[in-house]
Amino acid sequence: MPKTAGIILIGNEILSGKIADANAAYLCRELRELGVEVRRITVIPDEVDLIAREVAEFSRAFDVVFTSGGVGPTHDDVTMEGVAQALGTRVVRHPHLVELLQRYYGDRINDASLRMAEVPDGAELLSGGSLRFPTVFARNVYVLPGVPEIFRQKFDTLRERFRDEPYHLRQVFVVIGESAIAEHLNTVLAAFPELLLGSYPEFSNPEYRVKVTLESKDLGYVEAALAALLDRLPADAVVKVIQGR
Amino acid sequence: MPKTAGIILIGNEILSGKIADANAAYLCRELRELGVEVRRITVIPDEVDLIAREVAEFSRAFDVVFTSGGVGPTHDDVTMEGVAQALGTRVVRHPHLVELLQRYYGDRINDASLRMAEVPDGAELLSGGSLRFPTVFARNVYVLPGVPEIFRQKFDTLRERFRDEPYHLRQVFVVIGESAIAEHLNTVLAAFPELLLGSYPEFSNPEYRVKVTLESKDLGYVEAALAALLDRLPADAVVKVIQGR
Predict the structure, then answer these.
(1) Is B123 an interface residue toward A (CB < 8 Å)?
(2) Residue B116: closest C-alpha in chain A
């Protein structure tokens, strides 16, 4: 079984269309490269009870969970409270974070900035690389900030924790429509039931009409399935076969 | 109470990082403009039971639900089955869709293409504009395709169904940090508890450090809250105030 992940984006600004999230797409690509299966993404408002409910469900359902957003010093930054509630605990001020914040803010430190020292009781702090502030980790939940630059910087320091058996990807580009290949896909899937098989039509690309993706963590399996598919497709329908991305 | 909406994106290709979704961000912007509150977005795999579970929950929780993806002729297009199961019914072949597909495909029609005539029993077909195929609508669920051009084309024909009282937005750009304004935001929120108040730090913009957004469907309320905020902020901290987007 591949390692599974869930992603929780927290922020009214995404739901109200003010900001287009970039973190989920980035994380999906990175985790796939690492061999991790993302099973669900959810986008929810900055509301403690909703965050708690989603985090609790994701934490039970998936091996690892990532949250994005809601970790600053203002009224709408309630992710830590939500995560704490999900894990049946409360937030506490972490002395090491207090120290880091004091060093960063100096005389300008106030109650609002000290909110950023609050973590779910029992959480670990994960330092690494050139991070100014460590990543908060509680049970199987990594709490990441919404700002894309910092989100990526933090994920970079965590990346190797998640590495698993890689997926092997093959892509077949055809110039006939989805309806014309559907039966062949079904036949291949009947012979290779564990194959991850995708079919993506393209309506404005002059080079091909459908991209078919075949994936498995078992290299022999995906190669055999690819051979079976190419064997069935009309030879002049296939314009290109690619290994990997 | 504003009208609420939920968005369900269906597709392994998003979760596996092959495609970055564009439909949710588009729909959030459009619905906000129309005065509709998007309460949740979920991204799930092409699996009937998962689709059924999410659609059932969203359909109960929100006034309108939009699904994106999983409506083609291949094995991984199982949205209609999922929606049907969520609504306690099954899929049936709709005679009008069969007719449209026969006209479109002519002699090349086959079982795979006829899958696209399947809809949840009792669903309505919504025609409009220059749509080649109508939109499937069942209970409060609009079933839209994943391909962005067609998704937008279909939403355009539906748009006026969702128009509600507009949100009034004011944006204040400040050159001091979030920690320094947090207390002022809290004070304003205490006086205007119904205000939708957002605070968005910017780390690489030379013009400002935080964008504060104030929103309400009550124009007088948002104007009064804005005045209260500007009254509290140090005058030289505010670089710009914008009405609307």
Answers:
(1) no
(2) A179
Q: Does the distance separating the beta carbons of B19 and A200 come in below 8 Å?
A: yes
CA B176 to chain centre: 33
The parts of chain A modelled with pLDDT lower than 70 are: 1
User: Do B199 and A76 make contact, defined as CB atoms within 8 angstroms?
Assistant: yes
CATH 3.40.980.10 domain locations along chain B: 4-162
CB contact under 8 A, A201 and B147: yes
B188-201, pLDDT tens digit by residue? 999 999 999 999 99
What is the rounded distance in angstroms from the CA atom of residue B158 to the CA atom of residue B144?
A: 11
Q: What is the pLDDT of residues B118-137, one digit of tens each?
A: 999 999 999 988 889 999 99
Of residues B169, B180, B190, the one with CA closest to residue B236: B180
Chain B residues close to A33, C-beta within 8 Å? 17
CA distance B195 to B213: 10
Q: What share of chain B is helix, strand, coil (3-state, %, to 5)?
A: 45, 25, 30
Q: What tokens appear for B160 in the block?
A: 């006026």
Residues B5, B141: Cα–Cα separation, whole Å: 10
Classify B168-243 by CATH class. Answer: alpha beta
CB of B19 within 8 Å of any CB in chain A? yes
Q: Read off the pLDDT of residues A111-164 as tens digits, 9 standing for 90 and up.
A: 999 999 999 999 999 998 888 999 999 999 999 999 999 999 999 999 999 999
What's the CA gap between A74 and A195, in Å, rounded?
Answer: 47
Domain(s) labelled CATH 3.30.70.2860 in chain B stretch across 168-243
ipTM associated with this complex: 0.96
Q: In this structure, which amino acid lies at residue B188?
A: V
A42 touches chain B (CB under 8 A): yes
- Best A9, A41, A213 member to test B by mutation, with max B CBs in 10 Å, is A41
Nearest chain B residue to A182 by CA: give it. B74
Average pLDDT over residues B68-78: 95
CATH assignment of A4-162? 3.40.980.10
CA distance A123 to A94: 9
The answer to whether A200 contacts B108, with C-beta atoms less than 8 Å apart, is no
Using a CB-CB cut-off of 8 Å, the residues of chain A touching B201 are: 72, 147
B44 to A40: CB separation less than 8 angstroms, yes or no? yes
**Residue A88 backbone dihedrals phi, psi, to 5 degrees:** 70, 30
